[in-house]
Amino acid sequence: MTEREYNECVNTYADNVYRFILKNLRHEEDARDVVQTAFEKMWRNRDDVDPGKSKSYLFTVAYHQMIDHIRKVKRIQLKEDFNEDTRVQHQPVNNLKKVLDEALNRLNETQKSLVLLKDYEGYSYEEIGQIMNLNASQVKVYLHRARLQLKEYLVKMENVI
Fold it and tell me: Which CATH architecture has domain 1-80?
């Protein structure tokens, strides 16, 4: 991969990778760090990267960086003091985006990534398999299960609203 091809890759895919990572992490600074690290790794390994597969390579590296970041955050996470006087009030949610985000957040990391890559970013089963180190049939099965969980949650929410 030449410097020009690398710069073209940055211009073409930076926003897509950032959106994908941000949707999973829900923290802008962390998402920027993960994306920057992914591009940095791509730059360091540019001699080994096939320009025709740069998109897949970039998403794969970013996905693995995101998983590493999530694991690191889980280890560092501080416990908050629980205040029994604090009560959560359940109010009807009229914001569809908020309901969908809540439904996505109930999925595990793999399922959430599959749904976002397929339904939000529009990747094929084969491309998703390359990014997540799964074969196409595993992607289809896991994605089907994730969609069933989403459907089940959204139907329950629909009854509540």
Answer: Orthogonal Bundle (1.10)
CATH code linked to domain 91-161 = 1.10.10.10
CA nearest 43: which of 70, 61, 23? 61
d(CA 138, CA 144): 10
Q: Are 114 and 121 in contact (CB under 8 A)?
A: no
Residue-wise burial string across 112-146, b where 16 or more C-beta atoms lie within 10 A, e elsewhere:
bbbbbbbeebebebebbbbbbebeeebbbebbeeb
pLDDT digits (tens, 9 = 90+) for 74-107: 766 554 444 444 444 555 545 777 888 888 888 8
How many other β-carbons are positioned within 10 Å of the β-carbon of residue 98?
10
pLDDT tens-digit readout, 110-152: 888 898 888 888 888 898 898 888 898 999 999 999 988 988 8
Residue indicated by tokens 């074969």: 135
The Cα 41–Cα 157 span in angstroms is: 42
DSSP state for residue 78 in the 8-state scheme: P
